Records
---
Amino acid sequence: MPVARRDYERFIKASRHNPCPVCGKPDWCGFNSYICSCMRISEGAFKHVILSNGQVAHLHWLEPGRVTFERNREEIIPVAGAELAPIEVRDRVYRSFLRLLYLYPRHQEDLHRRGLDDKEIKRNGYKSVPENEPPWVICRRLINNNGHNLEGIPGFYLAKSQHDGYYWTFDPSPGYFIPIRDSQGRIQALQRRMDDTSNGKYKLFSGHVNKGGCSCGTPAHVARPEEIKDPRVWITEGPLKADIAAAYLDALVIGVAGATSWKPALYVVEELAAKEVVIAYDMDQKSNEAVATAKRMLAAKLKGMGIVVREAVWEARCKNEKGIDDALMVGLEVRVV
Ligand SMILES: [Zn+2]
């Protein structure tokens, strides 16, 4: 069976129908068409991986065509990339993680510039990617002092130790973390505002699937103001923009991970039992076909759910006023049509 993206081919659990191709036993091990993670036989393995529970998985290459198995019986196991941990677990780990970090003055200033005051900055929980301590020291603290398991928590992954075995770490590229919360305020993922914007301003804290990490997908953030005065639910692009808009609008604002990743927003709208939604995408949508199409599809889906859909418009005088957050901060008149 030809596999285009070999790195991401899922593992199946060894079973009576599909025994382990290395040890021949019907349990404990896992494999796909070209790699086997055998728990019993280390001889001939190209790599030995210590799992979070302390067990050692022996990775063996399989010759092409050696293994055939019934695809519909496949069961996913967290060997290549971990499975996403439940939201309660992610929330607990991310809260502990952020408590260990600080917000550096340059990042606080950036948030002031974006229109947030100290109280909102504290309430929303932004923290800088640590520069005073190596990432693995912080991971060790989360595991040893706080008793957390980092498997299945997006952003954390395993690195090989110089001596033996593996340790947990994360990407220490400078910037600050923006918590991505669900409709109940739980932290489901983290976004990063990067200091070095040459590869994009924002990056999700996620991935490294081939190193035991896992992906957070494209979660929608729910920004909750201190007091809700506007019963409508707003939808904009990006979690930080949503936080800023929520502070100015005194409304719940959903921040989608990207203009085209609007689907998760539908679930949130449903959870919030919103009756009226205001779409406040960037005003450059006229020049951006993909964004305009995404907005039309989002509006159509919402209408299909029986929700009143409106759009926020404002007269941007320059490209710095294309986002709802900028428009609100400089005091432009935002109309809902
Ligand atoms: Zn085996």
---
Amino acid sequence: MRPLLLRGGRVIDPAAGIDGRYDVLANDGKIAAVAPGGTLAGPEDADIIDCAGLWILPGLIDAHVHLRDPGFPEKETILSGLRAAAAGGFTAVAAMANTNPVNDAPEIARHMLALAAAAGGARLIPVSAVTRGLAGRELVDFAAMAAAGARLFSDDGMPIDDAALLREAFSRAAGVGFAISLHEEDRALTGQGCCHAGAVAIRLGVAGIPTAAEAARIRRDLAIAADSGAPAHIAHISTAAGLKLVRAAKARGANVTCEAAPHHFTLDDAAFARHGPNAKMAPPLRAAEDLAAIRAGLADGAIDLIATDHAPHDSASKRMARFGPLFPGDREAAPLAPGDAAALAGAANGVVGLETALGLALELVHNRLIDASRMAALMAANPARLLRLERQGTLIPGALADVSVIDPDAAWTVAPEKFLSKSRNTPFGGRRLKGAAAITIVNGRIVYRAHRDK
Ligand SMILES: [Zn+2]
């Protein structure tokens, strides 16, 4: 592999305290040097890429994706998912365990890593289940899963209802030093809910999911985690009430982090009224005041990272044949007939996110809610810290040569039919975005390069 010299871009590396014009040299899979722009010569055989006008970030890391492999190739595979990740600017993704079979045994984790090594896209980090089969009854072998490559534990998709079992899980997680990522949902409160319990649910005539379904579980789990010695990570936080609890725990010095998904910092439940199944996820899009709280948390540090919760689904799982015509996308749906309202709960939860996350995060930057360095912390440095990837999330010499080169001003329109992901379930189709991945580099090798019509 030839050395790679990225010349004259704006390097944004908050872990190294750098934001300015620099050259970056990658050699032998590692960052070899970072020096003021125009000063680095590099070896004679280096490939030189002019990065004028571009941003050079530590490779973006998504701590929460669903790649559906093994088990659901009609939705996504490790191959398609890791290519979609690279196209979205990500150099590593943490793949949740709700596959079939569930990733609750070392041989499953090793199988996923072998497929990922052959895929040639972003890196894959297996997330181990907390409980066997995600059944919430028996804990996995934490040490064996960590030895097989897991760097996070989660039953995501399913909450862990048994408080005593969760307490024991934290004690095991403390033994291996990795965090437990928590899907905070009290299913008794969710019931048959399709969207946030608010004016939109009432107008459409569908059952709603109250704020308490999330907040009550966050309160319980923060109490359980408090004296465990293990880090707790709150996945896809969606409510102002939940975030307030996380803020209070952090103020007490608790070992807790949390993430927000692009859909939760961009949309409120009005989008559900327009897009129906393509804006249906767990937790749901919330009220306008929740959206404002999530945005404030991203800006002031209460929220530690952006994670997509990329959740690909085929149109049959989303019941698009039935519900697509009822949700026109460009305007709100009419109130649903009682039979439709009841059946909508059966449409699968989740939206794809890998190929839109960066553009949506850059919206926050362009709108001056966060600066570029904060975005790099939310999408690279902090996810690396959560997953304890000491040689990622930064571009200091010696770090892995995982780099996201970004064109912050590239204007484009989200076209789901062009996604490299196998699935199209997104409420962002047709949205105009500014900024996208230009070049994605993993281990010193270019795994994605944009061909964009300017
Ligand atoms: Zn979840």
